[in-house]
Write a structure and sequence with these properties.
Largest sheet: 4 strands, antiparallel
Shape: rod-shaped
CATH class of the largest domain: Alpha Beta
Strand order of the largest sheet: 2-4-3-6
GO molecular function: carbohydrate binding; kinase activity
Structural class: alpha+beta
Radius of gyration: 43 Å
Protein name: G-type lectin S-receptor-like serine/threonine-protein kinase
Oligomer: single chain
Keywords: Kinase, Lectin, Membrane, Receptor, Transferase, Transmembrane, Transmembrane helix
Number of domains: 3
Order of helices and strands: EEHEEEEHHHHEE
Distance between the termini: 89 Å
Organism: Trifolium medium
């Protein structure tokens, strides 16, 4: 216990020549010893051991003395923190598996969502491009407003040149789709 007023000293033994370490060893070897502390806290010297009930012990926030209380090993084990918390090893393993599966499912869901969104966006872009250049009046208007040296062709002239996109005229596929001669 940290920063406490030491209990009633009517049932204590004092030995001024012992260190705190020796005091601990003496208390552990005496079955009737219930607590110990150093007589001089600043120098960590002297030994005070309690035998019997500890009356009038109070905890302070600012000042006080460190008091080492003996507790039964089995009693202490009941209140000791487990290294894996209250879950234990099996519970921790199950939690790890569930979290891993959830993260994996979320990753797959996000990947498919983004992929579907890109395909939808690409399809919308292709449809808007087709709609804007389907008739020759739109093509002529685009050529007039765009001072480009690139020639633009309407879909009907490209379809006629590739024999309606025949497989026989297909050269291969690139990043933007099929390539025809």
């Amino acid at each position: 216990m940290v920063r406490v007023m030491v209990p009633d000293t009517s049932k204590t033994r004092v030995n001024e020549s012992m260190s705190l370490k020796e005091c601990r060893e003496e208390c552990l070897m005496d079955c009737s010893c219930v607590a110990f502390t150093s007589e001089n806290e600043a120098l960590q010297s002297g030994c005070v051991t309690w035998h019997g009930d500890m009356n009038d012990t109070r905890t302070y926030t600012q000042v006080g003395q460190d008091l080492y209380v003996r507790v039964d090993k089995h009693e202490l084990a009941r209140y000791a923190k487990h290294p894996y918390g209250s879950l234990g090893k099996k519970g921790m393993a199950a939690l790890l598996v569930v979290c891993t599966c959830l993260i994996l499912l979320m990753t797959i869901f996000i990947y498919r969502f983004v992929k579907a969104r890109k395909q939808l966006s690409r399809r919308d872009n292709n449809n808007s491009f087709r709609l804007s250049f389907d008739d020759s009046s739109n093509l002529q208007e685009f050529n007039r407003t765009n001072n480009s040296n690139l020639p633009f062709f309407d879909l009907s002239s490209i379809a006629a040149a590739t024999d309606n996109f025949s497989i026989a005229n297909k050269l291969g596929e690139g990043g933007f789709g099929s390539v025809y001669k």
